[in-house]
C-alpha cells in the first residue's frame, strides 16, 4: 500500500534495507525430490478461508512441491486466539504442548514473543533486495520485528477494514429522516445517524418506551483505539526499548470514549453476537466496521424471530474522526518460519515465495477476502485479469470489498502497531476492558430504569465528566500495568 508519498517511500526503502542486514539472497542448500522435506503449517483459517488455503497447499504439493521435494501439511488451530495459545505453550515447553511447526500464521505480537525466545528464522537470509521491492513496502516493514531490523514475518495475505451497510433497511429510514450515506463519512456523523435511528425505531412503538434499535457496531475494538488515535494526530502508545507506554493525551481518550462508550450505553451502537455481521443478520444492526476478510460472512438476508427478508449492501469507507487524518488499519497475519536447519528453512521459504506469487495469492484472496501482497497484484486491472484468467469464483461482497480497497489505496494511510514486550496483554486490555465495562454498565442502567428511574437522568450520570475521568484513570493504569515487563 502506498504510504505518504516521497518521504515515506524513502523511509520504507531504508527500513527494507534494514531487513537485509543479516544477509541477502537464497542459500545454496539444495532440495532433493527423492528425499522430500515434510513441512507442518499451523494457521487459524476456518470456513471459506480454510478451503482456500487447503486448495493452495494442494496445488503447491502437486506442482512445485513435487518438483523440488517439499510436502506441506496445514493444520487449523481454530481461532486466532487458539493458535496464539498453542504457539505460546510450545515456546514455554508446557506439558502436552506440541513442538513448534515449521511455519505458523502469526500477528506481530505473537511473532515478537517467538523472536525474543530465539525461535524464528531470519528470512532476510533468503530474499534479495530486488525480491522484497516487489512487495507492498508497508507489508514487509510490518514483518521486520527483529532488533537488527531483519525480516521475521513474511507477508502472505493482508486485510484492512471497511464499513458495510444494509441498504435495504437503510432506505426507509433515510427517506423519513433525510440522512444520507455522506453522513457516514465521519465517526461523529455515524454517532448522529445512530442517534436518529434509535429515535426513529423507538417512535414506531409509542406504547413501548426506550425500545429503539442500534444502528452501528464494530469488530476489533483495539483497532478503534490504535487507528482512532492516529486519526486524531497522536499515537496511542510510545515504544522505547521494547517497552510500551501510553502516549495519547487525555483529550484523545475523551474523543474515543465519547464516540464509542457514549453511543453504546445509549443504545445507538450495539454488540450482541460474536461478530457484528451476526448482528446484521438478526436485524440488530444496520451497519458495521469489520475486516475485508470477514466480508463473506455479511448476510444475504435478515432473519428475526418473526420474519426474514433479503437485503442488499453497500461497501463504504471506514468512518474517520472529523478533521482527522485518513488512517485505517493494516492487518492480517503473515507467516513465521521456525528456526531449524537451513534445508528446512529453504523449503519453507520456497513455499512462501510460491504462495505470494500473484496468481496464487489472488486465488487465495478471492476465496478468503485477503488482499494480495505483491505490488503488481494490487492494481485493480491486474487483480481483475488474474480473477478472469484463473476463472476464480468470488462471493459478490468479497469482490466488492477487495475492489473498493484497491481503488482507494492511494488516498489512504495504513497503520499497524509497533511490537513491544507484553503486546498480547496490552491488546487484551484494549479488546476487553471497555467492552466489559459497557456490558456491566448497560445491565446497571437497565436495572435502575426497571426500578422506575428516569433513563435520561441515569444515562447522564454514566456519561458525565466525572464518569469519563474515572474510566480514563483506570483504563490508562490497566494498559500501563499490562505493558510492564
Features:
4-stranded mixed sheet; alpha/beta; single chain; 48% helix; 485 residues; disordered N terminus; globular; 20 helices; 5-stranded mixed sheet
If you had to describe this structure to a student in words, what would you say it looks like?
The structure is a single chain. With 485 residues, this protein is of the alpha/beta class. Helix content is 48%, strand content 13%. The chain has helices at residues 5-19, 47-62, 64-68, 80-92, 108-116, 129-132, 137-143, 167-177, 187-203, 221-231, 250-258, 261-266, 276-281, 342-355, 358-368, 380-389, 396-408, 423-450, 455-462, 465-483; strands at 37-43, 70-76, 103-106, 153-154, 161-166, 216-218, 237-240, 243-246, 287-291, 301-303, 308-310, 313-316, 327-329, 334-337, 413-415. Strands 2-1-3-14-4 form a 5-stranded mixed β-sheet. Strands 6-9-5-12 form a 4-stranded mixed β-sheet, sandwiched between helices. A two-stranded antiparallel sheet has the order 7-8. α1 (5-19) packs across α7 (137-143) and α18 (423-450) runs antiparallel to α20 (465-483). The longest helix has 28 residues, at 423-450. It starts with a helix and ends with a helix.
Produce the secondary structure layout:
Layout (H helix, E strand, L loop, with lengths): L4 H15 L17 E7 L3 H16 L1 H5 L1 E7 L3 H13 L10 E4 L1 H9 L12 H4 L4 H7 L9 E2 L6 E6 H11 L9 H17 L12 E3 L2 H11 L5 E4 L2 E4 L3 H9 L2 H6 L9 H6 L5 E5 L9 E3 L4 E3 L2 E4 L10 E3 L4 E4 L4 H14 L2 H11 L11 H10 L6 H13 L4 E3 L7 H28 L4 H8 L2 H19 L2
Helix pairs in contact: 1-7, 2-15, 18-19, 18-20
Amino acid at each position: 500500500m502506498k504510504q505518504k508519498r516521497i518521504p515515506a517511500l524513502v523511509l520504507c526503502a531504508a527500513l527494507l534495507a534494514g531487513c537485509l542486514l543479516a544477509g541477502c539472497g537464497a542459500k545454496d542448500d539444495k532440495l532433493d525430490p527423492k528425499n522430500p522435506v515434510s513441512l507442518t503449517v499451523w494457521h487459524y483459517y476456518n470456513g471459506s478461508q480454510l478451503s482456500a488455503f487447503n486448495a493452495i497447499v494442494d496445488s503447491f504439493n502437486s506442482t512445485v512441491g513435487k518438483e523440488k521435494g517439499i510436502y506441506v501439511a496445514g493444520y487449523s488451530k481454530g481461532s486466532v486466539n487458539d493458535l496464539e495459545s498453542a504457539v505460546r505453550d510450545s515456546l514455554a515447553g508446557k506439558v502436552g504442548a506440541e513442538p513448534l511447526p515449521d511455519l505458523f500464521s502469526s500477528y506481530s505480537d505473537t511473532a515478537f514473543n517467538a523472536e525474543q525466545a530465539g525461535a524464528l528464522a531470519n528470512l532476510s537470509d533468503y530474499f534479495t533486495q530486488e525480491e522484497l521491492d516487489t512487495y507492498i513496502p508497508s507489508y514487509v516493514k510490518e514483518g521486520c520485528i527483529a532488533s537488527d531490523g531483519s525480516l521475521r514475518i513474511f507477508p502472505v495475505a493482508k486485510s484492512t477494514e471497511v464499513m458495510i451497510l444494509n441498504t435495504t433497511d437503510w432506505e426507509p429510514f433515510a427517506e423519513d429522516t433525510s440522512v444520507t450515506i455522506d453522513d457516514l463519512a465521519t465517526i461523529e456523523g455515524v454517532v448522529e445517524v445512530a442517534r436518529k435511528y434509535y429515535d426513529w425505531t423507538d417512535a414506531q412503538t409509542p406504547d413501548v418506551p426506550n425500545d429503539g434499535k442500534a444502528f452501528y457496531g464494530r469488530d476489533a475494538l483495539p483497532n478503534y483505539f490504535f487507528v482512532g488515535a492516529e486519526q486524531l494526530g497522536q499515537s496511542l502508545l510510545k515504544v522505547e526499548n521494547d517497552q510500551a507506554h501510553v502516549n495519547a493525551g487525555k483529550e484523545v481518550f475523551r474523543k474515543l470514549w465519547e464516540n464509542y462508550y457514549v453511543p453504546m450505553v445509549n443504545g445507538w451502537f450495539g454488540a450482541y453476537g460474536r461478530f457484528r455481521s451476526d448482528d446484521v443478520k438478526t436485524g440488530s444492526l444496520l451497519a458495521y466496521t469489520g475486516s475485508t476478510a470477514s466480508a463473506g460472512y455479511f448476510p444475504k438476508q435478515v432473519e428475526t424471530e418473526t420474519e426474514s427478508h433479503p437485503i442488499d449492501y453497500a461497501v463504504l469507507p471506514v468512518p474517520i474522526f472529523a478533521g482527522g487524518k485518513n488512517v485505517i488499519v493494516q492487518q492480517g497475519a503473515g507467516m513465521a518460519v521456525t528456526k531449524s536447519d537451513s534445508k528446512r528453512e529453504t523449503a519453507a521459504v520456497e513455499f512462501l515465495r510460491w504462495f505470494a506469487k500473484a496468481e496464487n495469492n489472488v486465488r487465495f484472496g478471492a476465496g478468503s477476502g485477503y488482499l494480495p501482497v505483491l505490488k503488481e497484484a494490487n492494481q485493480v486491472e491486474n487483480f481483475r485479469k488474474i480473477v478472469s484468467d484463473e476463472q476464480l469464483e468470488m462471493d459478490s461482497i468479497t469482490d466488492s470489498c477487495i475492489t473498493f480497497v484497491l481503488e482507494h489505496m492511494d488516498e489512504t494511510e495504513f497503520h499497524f502497531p509497533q511490537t513491544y514486550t507484553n503486546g498480547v496483554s496490552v491488546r487484551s486490555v484494549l479488546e476487553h476492558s471497555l467492552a466489559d465495562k459497557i456490558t456491566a454498565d448497560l445491565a446497571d442502567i437497565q436495572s435502575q430504569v426497571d426500578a422506575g428511574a428516569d433513563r435520561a437522568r441515569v444515562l447522564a450520570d454514566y456519561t458525565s465528566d466525572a464518569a469519563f475521568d474515572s474510566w480514563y484513570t483506570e483504563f490508562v493504569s490497566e494498559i500501563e500495568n499490562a505493558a510492564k515487563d
